[in-house]
Design a protein that fits this description.
By secondary structure, the chain is mainly alpha-helical. It is globular, with a radius of gyration of 25 Å. The protein starts with a helix and ends with a helix. A two-stranded antiparallel sheet has the order 1-3.
Length: about 625
Amino acid sequence: MELQTWIYLFVGGTFALYIGIAVWARASTTGDFYVAGKGVHPVANGMATAADWMSAASFISMAGLIAFKGYDASVYLMGWTGGYVLLAMLLAPYLRKFGKFTVPEFIGERYYSQTARVVAVICLIVASITYVIGQMKGVGVAFGRFLEVDFEIGVLVGMSIVFIYAVLGGMKGITYTQIAQYCVLIFAYTIPAIFISLTLTGNPVPQLGLGSELADGSGYLLAKLDTVLTDLGFQAYTVQKGTTLNMVLLTLSLMIGTAGLPHVIIRFFTVPKVRDARASAGWALVFIAILYTTAPAVGSMARLNLITTVNGPDAQGTAYTELPTWFKRWEQTGLLAWYDHNGDGRVQHAAGNAFKGKPKFASVEDGSPLHGSHGERVVTNPGDGKPAEGAPFANEIYVDRDIMVLANPEIADLPFWVIALVAAGGLAAALSTAAGLLLAISSAISHDLLKGIFKPDISEKNELMAGRIAMTGAILVAGYLGMNPPGFAAQVVALAFGLAASSIFPALMMGIFYKKMNNTGAVWGMLTGLGATLIYIFVYKGWLFIPGTNNLPNTPDNWFMGIQPESFGAVGALINFVVAIIVSKLTAAPPEHIQHLVEDIRVPKGAAAATGH
C-alpha cells in the first residue's frame, strides 16, 4: 500500500476509536463530566495521566529541542519528570483528600474567599490557554504533513475531533480516550526508535544505543555527532551552551509548573481513595519514563540522520534533485524550506539562519519559489544584507524543530506503516493533552464561576450544559491561537509552565503546608507572581511595546540577570511566596476552623489514636 493509504488507515482508525469511546462513556452527570465519577482504577488513571501529561511538546517537540540544543535540552527531561515527584509527594494526596472537583474550588474554600477563587480561575485560564496553544500547533504540524493539508486546516480538523469526544464525554470520556491515546503514542514513539537504533548502532534498545558505537565503525554515536556538527560550524552537541543559572531556573520552573498544572491535578480527583492518588502518580511516572528515557536517543539519532542525508557523505551538500521524497513532502508544509543562495543546486545545512523568521517560500526544482505558510524569504545574508566577500551563504535550509520526530522515520527510510503509526501517535499526544486542558478551563468557568459565584442554585443539568458551552468556547479560542502561535510547541509550553509555577503552585503549597496563610496574602501572592511573569515574558518576547524603546530584543544581553523568559517562572514563584507571606503577616490570621482544616488535610485518619494525641 502507498504511504498515504497507511496514514488514512492509522489516523482514521484511531479517531474512530476515540469517538466510539466518547459515545460509550458519555457523561450524564456533573460528577462524570468533572471527575469521571471518582471511580477510575489507579493503573488506568496513571495511564490516562501520562497521556494527559505527554503532550505535543513531549511527543513532537521535546526530541526536536534535544536534536538542536543537545545537552541544554536535558532541562526539559529533568524538569518535567522531577515535577511529577513533587506532584506525587506534596500535592496529589492532599488535594484528593480535600475532595473537591477543581483547583480553584480548593483555593476558594481553603482561603475562605470568593475573590481567591476568581483569581485562581484567572491564573488557571491564562496558564491553560498558553499551554493549549502548543497542542494546537502540534496538531497543525502533524495534519499539515500527513494529511497534506494547510497548517490552519489541520488545526481545524483537530479542533473538531476534540470537540466531539471532550464536549460529549467530559472527564469520563476523556479518561478512557486518553488510555487508548497513551497506547497509540507510546508504540508510535518507541517502535521507530528501536528501528533506528538498530540500524545505526546494532543495539535495539534506544537508551543503550545512544551510548553505543556506530555500526559502520566510525566511532561512538555522540562523538560522531559532535564532530559532524563542529565541522559544519555548529556548537558541539554534548557541551553546555547556556548559563548554569538559566538551566537551574528553567528546571525549577518546569518542576513546580508541573506540580501546579490544573489539568494534571484534577486527574487525581478521579480515583476512589487518597491512597489511589499516590498510586496513580507512581504509575504515571512509570508510563512517562518509557517515553522520556527514549527521547534523548530519538533527538540525537534524528539530528545525525538529517545532517547526513542533507549534506551527503562528503559534507558538500546533496543535489536537490537527488534528495529523497520526504524532503520535498515536508517542503509543502512550509516547515522545511530551502533556497539555493550560491546557485550550485546543492542543499547545504550549516550554522546560521537561512531565512528571516519562518520561510514563506520553499524552492522547487527549477529554482522558482513555492508558496508555503509562514514568514518571509531572505535571499541575502540577514546580517548586513550581503554575504562576506567571496564567502558562500553557509546555511540554505530552515528546519522547524517540531518536525523532527514526525519526519524521523521518513528520514531513516522506515516502512510506511511505521511512518503512519508516528502520525497517529503525534496526533494522539496533542489531542489528549488538549482535551485535559480544555476540560480544566471549562470546569473553571462552569463550576467555579457560574455555580460557585454567579448562580449557586443552578441545576445539575444546566451546569452540565454550561460546561459543554464553555468547552466549546475554549476550543474556538485555542484553535485561533494555535493558528497564530508565538513560538514552537515546547517553547510555548515552557511559558505555560512558568505561568503555572508563578501563580498556582505557591497558593497550593502554602494552602496545604502553611496553616497561617490567609486569603489576602494568597490573592496578592498569586496576582504579583502571575503579573511579574507575564510582564517579563511579554517584554522580552517583544509582545509588549515600551515607550522610548524599540522593544527589547529577546537576547541574553537584554534579559534581567541573563534570565530567559522561559526560566522566569521560578522567579515569579519566589515573588509569589515572599509577597504572600509578608501580606499574611501584616493582616488578620485565618479563622481557627480554617487552620484546623489545613491540619486535617495533612494528618492521616487514625493518626491521633495511633500516637495517643
